[in-house]
Amino acid sequence: MGRILTVTNSNSTVLGRRKKTIGRQIVIGSNAIKFITITIIAILAIVYLNQSTAGANRSIKIRDLEQGKSQLMLERERLEAEQTRLKSLKEIDSGIEKPVLESGAQVNHIVN
Fold first, then answer.
1. Considering just the CA atoms, what is the radius of gyration of the chain in Å?
2. Are the C-beta atoms of residues 54 and 41 closer than 8 Å to each other?
3. CA end-to-end span of the chain, whole Å?
């Protein structure tokens, strides 16, 4: 039916004759080397920036957590002082006998 098309280096199209096909060699010129170099440098720069940003984010989170911890410690100290104050007020109240009110008939009034 159809013929197989073979791309060759020779100008001959005679059947039955062995022909050399075009070689598949990759030729890298100066422009390709520049492009590859710039691409590699750009990829390395992106990786570096990603790593440094991740480190900065972690340090910000750590700083926020430490700041929250210090605020909670101050609140704890304040609440412990309040607890001590309330305990001492309760002990003072329990140690004092409450005076019993006398009826109004037994009160002596001083008249000038």
1. 48
2. no
3. 147
Q: For 17-38, what is each residue's pLDDT tens digit?
A: 666 666 666 677 888 899 999 9
What number is the average pLDDT over the span 104-108? Answer: 63
- The closest of 20, 24, 27 to 6, measured between CA atoms, is 20
- pTM given for the model: 0.42
CB atoms within 10 A of CB 102: 8
State both tokens at 90: 């309760």
Structural domain boundaries of the chain? 30-93
Bridge partners (DSSP) of residue 21 are 8
- Asked if residue 6 lies in contact with residue 21, where contact means CB atoms within 8 angstroms, the answer is yes
Distance CA 16, CA 13 (A): 9
Q: Which helix (H) or strand (E) holds 24?
A: none
Phi-psi map region of 12: left, alpha, beta (phi>0 left; psi -120 to 50 alpha): beta
82 vs 4: CA distance, rounded Å: 97
CA distance 25 to 23: 6
